[in-house]
Amino acid sequence: MVPLTSLWLPILLSAIAVFFASFLVHMVLPFHRKDYGKVPAEDDVMAALRKFSIAPGDYFIPCATGPAEMKTPEYKKKAEQGPLVIMTVLGSNAYAMGRRLVQWFLFTVVVSLFAAYVASRTLPPGTTYITVFRIAGTVAFAGYALGLWPNSIWYSRKWSTTVLSTFDGLLYALLTAGMLGWRWPR
Questions:
Q1: One digit per residue, pLDDT tens: the chain, 186 residues?
Q2: Distances 54 to 47, 50, 88, 90, 97 between C-alpha atoms, Å
Q3: DSSP 8-class letter at 41
Q4: Which H or E run includes 102?
Q5: What predicted TM-score, i.e. pTM, was given to this entire model?
Q6: What is the torsion angle, in degrees rounded to the nearest 10, for the CA atoms of residue 29, residue 172, residue 148 and residue 46?
Q7: Pair 172, 19: CB distance under 8 Å
């Protein structure tokens, strides 16, 4: 076993590498520009929603309060008439990126920490780079990518977005694995 405290540098380096890679993936490269579509008559839809002053949060329309309500004729009629909507309403400060960037960086540290923890409990000092890479990379991939799939399964998120984000997760996992393998105690 390797003490987790001896891995603080590769944990931090991998978090920094992933943070900057995610900037490139989302802000420079064009891959994620079609993750969200524009609704028809956007201005009219926004004006219609604005009058309700919907608080920030997640919503489902129509929304049943439980399984019994879903069986009522009224609910069934609403669902059949549509549209069925899953939406997230953001606050007016949604484009303030500072807090979100801090949260994202902390998340990258947490994923790196878990990858390092599993590797540190299963591998001794002096383990080859490729072995550390495989173990840490698998854990990091699970942390960055596998949790995205239920959003497509249960909430109808576009599969193309989920698959593309899974590739992002693979890139982030490779960076995490590379840093941990490179700085693994000898």
A1: 999 999 999 999 999 999 999 999 999 999 999 998 999 999 999 999 999 999 999 999 999 999 999 999 999 999 999 999 999 999 888 888 999 999 999 999 999 999 999 999 999 999 999 999 999 999 999 999 999 999 999 999 999 999 999 999 999 999 999 999 999 999
A2: 12, 7, 10, 9, 22
A3: T
A4: helix 97-122
A5: 0.90
A6: -30
A7: no
Rounded to whole angstroms, the Cα distance separating 84 from 63 reads 9
Please tell me what DSSP assigns to residue 71: T
Quick check: 31 and 164 in contact, CB under 8 A?
yes
- For residue 86, give the DSSP letter: E
Q: Where do we find the tokens 């579509």?
A: 37
Backbone φ/ψ region at 155: left (φ over 0), alpha (ψ -120 to 50), beta: alpha
Q: What is the DSSP letter of 27?
A: I
